[in-house]
Structures are given as structure tokens and as C-alpha cells.
Amino acid sequence: MTPRSEPLLWLQLISFGVLPLEALLLLLVLAGSDPGPLPGLERLFCWAIGALAPALLLVRRPADVWSLLLLQTPLRGRRELQRRLSRLQATPALALATAGGAALGLPLLWWIDRQAAVASPMSPFSSCPRLVALLLAALLLAVMLWQWQQLVQSLWLLSRKAETVAGTPPLSLAELEQQRLCLGLPLLLPEPLLLPEPQKLPEPSVVVPVAVEPEQGTKEAEGSDLDQQVP
Asked: Which residues pair with 71 in a beta bridge?
């Protein structure tokens, strides 16, 4: 019962490459409009909507690790291993990681908005009203925070030992609906990965030397030879 056999945990690691692309898209969105008279207040407003409010929700109800935002595994079609791993999501370390991701969103947004003028000639959102740009940026921040939590949760669950997973009771369907944020269409039913089982090395055999006594016939033959040699 190893978590490494769940393909969705590995699929969540795509966020390593998606998050930088979303940061680039955030730059292009903010580059399409000129900042207002109070850019600092605008950035705080965008961060509060796109990072702070979703973080409070995700700390209370973590993102379902079997959800890809648009698609998810049906609740009634989940294996026992998946429900055991869902219970392991409830740990203070993951909540702190989510809060840390939301906190990092503010300096990231601040820096990107200050550098957005450099990308204004390449932005497809030119002549976009500032309020619309801020709302789109808040939406991108919320998606980035969701993927950040999914990435941290997947790394955490993949590092759990099989003995820890086996000793964890599975989460019931009612608890899943009440304690996890399950988003997406219930269309994902991937089969578990078939991992090769570790082979045990054969134990080295210990050879015990056994003293071999000469046979009775040999002893008698040697004794007769000695008698013949004595005059």
C-alpha cells in the first residue's frame, strides 16, 4: 500500500512547470493597463481577493488531492488507498505551507506589477481597464495558490511510508464532502501504477565443516598392512 502507485500524485507535480508560466501570464495581464494613482492599494486589493481569501478557505478545507481543478476522481469511485491518503492531508505543516504560499504572493504581485511596463508592447491585454486587469490577476493568483497547495500535498503524500498509510483509517464519503474542496467534473478514473516489488536477496548459507571418519574397512586394511610389515 504505497502512495507512489497513485498516478494523480505524480500528475500534480506538473505544477513545477505551470507556475512559472502563470507568473508570466500575470505579467502580461498587468502590462495591459496603466496603474492608478494608488498602485500600492490596488496591489493589496488584488492580493486580498486572489490570495488571502482563498488561503483562508484552503486552510479550512484543503484542496482535494484527487482534483485537477477541472476534473476529479468521483467520490464513490475512490479506492481505499486514496481515502487513506486524503486523511493524511489534515496536518498543520500543509496548512502552514498554504499560508506561506499566500504570503509570498504579495511580494510576487508587487514585483510583477512594477515590472509590467516592460512587457506592455507584447501584452495581448492592451487598453484593458485597470479594474478588469486586477480582477484577472486575482483570478490567476487564486489558481496559482491552488496549484501550490496541490504541489506541496503531493510531495508530502509521496514521501509517506507504506506502514504509515496502512495505519491510517480511510476518510468516509461524508467527511470528504465536508472537509475537502472537491472541484471539477467527476470523470477521472486512472488505474494504479504497477510498481515492481523489491526483491529480497538470498541469505548467505553457512557451511559447517564436518569431520569425516575413515571407514571400518579402511582401518582394518591399514592395520593388516602394519602387521605384515612387523617381523
From this structure: 185
Burial class from Cβ neighbours inside 10 Å (0-12, 13-18, 19+) for residue 130 reads middle
Helix axes 92-115, 130-158, angle to 10 degrees: 150
Instruction: Report how far residue 55's alpha carbon sits from residue 96's, in angstroms, rounded to the nearest whole number.
Output: 10
Helix and strand totals (H; E) in the chain: 10, 2
- Give tens-digit pLDDT for 165-186: 999 999 999 999 999 999 999 9
Which residues, in sequence order, are CB contacts of 35 under 8 Å at separation 6+?
Answer: 42, 113, 130
Q: Which amino acid is at 95?
A: A
Taking the whole predicted model, whether its pTM rises above 0.85 is answered as: no
* Alpha-carbon torsion, ordered 92, 95, 96, 102, to 10 deg: -170
